[in-house]
Amino acid sequence: MNAEAIAVASARLDTMLRTEPDRLRRRSVSLGVPPADAEDAAQNAALRAWRSLSALRSADAGSMCAWLDTIVRTTAIDMHRARKDDLGEVLCERLRV
C-alpha cells in the first residue's frame, strides 16, 4: 500500500475501533479466550493491527474486518499457547517436588 492508502486504512481502523470498542473483546471470547483475559487479547490485537497496517492489501471495510478478525484469531491462539506452556511448566515443577 502507498502512503495515501495507509492513511485511509489508518483512519478506517481508528473509526472501527472507536465505534465498536467491544468488537475485538467479543471476538476474543467467541474464540475461546477466557472473559477475564479478553480485554488483554483485544488490546494486543489492536496493537498488532496498528503495527501491521502497511501489510493490509485493501482498505475497504470488508477486507479490513476480515484482516482484523485474522489478527484477533492469531492473538487468541498465541494466548492459548502461552497458557498451555505456563500450565506445562507448573506441572513440571510439581512433578519435580
Summarize this entry quickly.
The chain is mainly alpha-helical.
Keywords:
97 residues, mainly alpha, 80% helix, 0% strand, elongated
Could you please describe the fold and organization of this structure?
By secondary structure, the chain is mostly helical. It is built from four helices and no strands. The protein has helices at 3-19, 23-30, 35-51, 61-96. Helix 3 (35-51) packs across helix 4. The longest helix has 36 residues, at 61-96. The radius of gyration is 16 Å and the shape is elongated.
| SS content category | mainly alpha
Largest sheet: none
Strand residues, percent: under 5%
Number of distinct beta strands: 0
Quick one: overall form? elongated
Which secondary structure elements does this structure contain, and how are they paired or packed?
Elements: H1 3-19, H2 23-30, H3 35-51, H4 61-96
Helix pairs in contact: 2-3, 3-4
